[in-house]
Amino acid sequence: MIRRLAVLAAVVLATGACFVGTGSDDSGQPEPGSPAPGSPGNRAEQPSTEEFEKDIRDAASSAADYWKAVFDRSGIRFTRVRDIFPYTREGEVSCGGDPIPANNAVYCSAGDFIAYDANFAVTAFAKVGDAFLYYLLGHEYAHGIQVRLGIQYSYTIQQELQADCMAGAYIGDSVKSGALTLEDGDINEFRDGLLAVGDDPSVPWFTPGAHGTAAQRSESFFSGYEKSLAACDLPRG
């Protein structure tokens, strides 16, 4: 289980969801009730509500701290994503007038917020592990950073794989700095989660909403994890 050291802000060691229009999601995520590919299934001890909520708070806070340090180093004013909150049913939350689907996590640029399906997130937490929550929040927070940097691409898959890389950089750099501590099994949890959220290989890369296959998403995430933001093709300021 990832543990956050409360007094440490993330320090960048090396520099170099999901949004399309008004919003973005993590399509292709596992349905609640189904273990992620490669996962051991239900854990012996189910996580408590308190554990889940604490990990969500810590993941969101550590991602914000990390990106503030990145922006400070570059002399750019940083603003946190305005809000992060759960929903429990399809259409309960809208982004720019469009209802957000169930079994998802979304960064909405129209409202500058991250919304996640609590039922999906709790199930993933129970079946994959708490490390998945840090990836999930890290990926969606990366979309907020893309908006702040004015990054735009012609194809969804480019945005999504870059966000995976940025999430990997946030987690990897935070581990190296001591802001986050990995426990046994966390790397496997990242791998299992990435296997679960990949597109079917039959989905053309240029399809609107394409996120990349499990292999592509894993490669992007671990490139960021190992090589930091230098691997993520960010604009140089």
In short:
The chain is an alpha+beta fold and about 240 residues long. Helix content is about 45%, strand content about 10%.
Structure description:
This protein has helices at 49-74, 118-127, 131-149, 156-177, 186-197, 214-227, and strands spanning 3-4, 23-25, 83-87, 94-95, 98-99, 105-108, 113-117, 180-181. It is an alpha+beta fold. It has one domain. The strands form three sheets. It has a four-stranded mixed sheet. α1 crosses α4 and α3 crosses α4. The protein starts with a strand and ends in a 10-residue tail after the last helix. Mean pLDDT is 83; it is low at 3-23 and 27-44.
How far apart the termini lie comes to 35 Å
Q: Give the count of helical stretches.
A: 6
Query: Taking strands numbered 1, 2, ... along the chain, how are they ordered across the largest sheet?
Result: 2-6-7-3
- List segments where confidence is low: pLDDT < 50 over at least 5 consecutive residues: 3-23, 27-44
What is the makeup of the main sheet? 4 strands, mixed
Tell me the radius of gyration.
16 Å
